[in-house]
Amino acid sequence: MKVFKGLIYKELKLMKNWFMLGLALLILGVMIGFGLTKYFNEPNIFVAVALLMVVGYGLYLPAYLLSSLNIEGQTQLWLHNPNSGIVLFLAKLTAGIVFYFASFLLSIVIAIWGFKHGGNLESLLQLTGGPALNIVIMAVGITLGTLFLGVWVLFYWSLFHSLKNIPVLSSLRWPVVIGTWLLFTTFGNYVSNLPLYQKLKNIGVIKLNAYSFEIKTWNTTASAGFVESAELSMVNGIIYTVLVFSVFYAAVWLLERKVEV
């Protein structure tokens, strides 16, 4: 545990500037939102910008891991590291999640503040499931999504660097990685459309109230959300959990046996 904490501290220190850059971009987005709101005298513009920033955090962890792993590849910091791939990758994921939550929660606070000061709240935000519930659902969905994408980034990074040790494929690493992504995507779409998979998804379904939001700016209205109802499938969640662990351990296997960084 002491070694793991040390790796997390090292990762936080290594990526501190990246985190500060993310906060700077968040502040810049707030300034742009305020500027456009004042210029056009339309309070809902800031709300739209705040929502875009919140949704954009779905790409936070993948971007963080790509940057961190790129630094590892350039500095060779992992070359003589005696720790297992599981520990190394978990330390990066943990540090990334810490930075993610610190920044993501701030963006949610900004968005909530924007809702409260965005003019007519009744016409701005229409929720049938309750504001608090839907904010939680949105936050959980974005968090699970960014974690899911982050694990895939670990896999494809490990795959890319593992191909460097295969002379025949060394110069074709990008085509192989892209081809692998297309293969997995096609296979995933095929499986998701199978009748058996559809039946499994209907096992242990939790139904939630529908929710939606509307942003009205001048004569234009933008809306998003579920039309009738939202459903959470427990079996589907189990399948995705197994997939995430499988992809993670595949990345670890490639790192420990094939990658030289």
UniProtKB/TrEMBL annotation:
Source organism superkingdom: Bacteria
Transmembrane spans: 21-39, 45-66, 87-115, 135-160, 172-191, 237-255
Statement: the UniProt record of this protein carries the keyword Ubl conjugation: no
Keywords recorded for this protein, A-Z: Membrane, Transmembrane, Transmembrane helix
Protein's UniProt keywords contain Transmembrane: yes
Name of the protein in its database record: ABC transporter permease
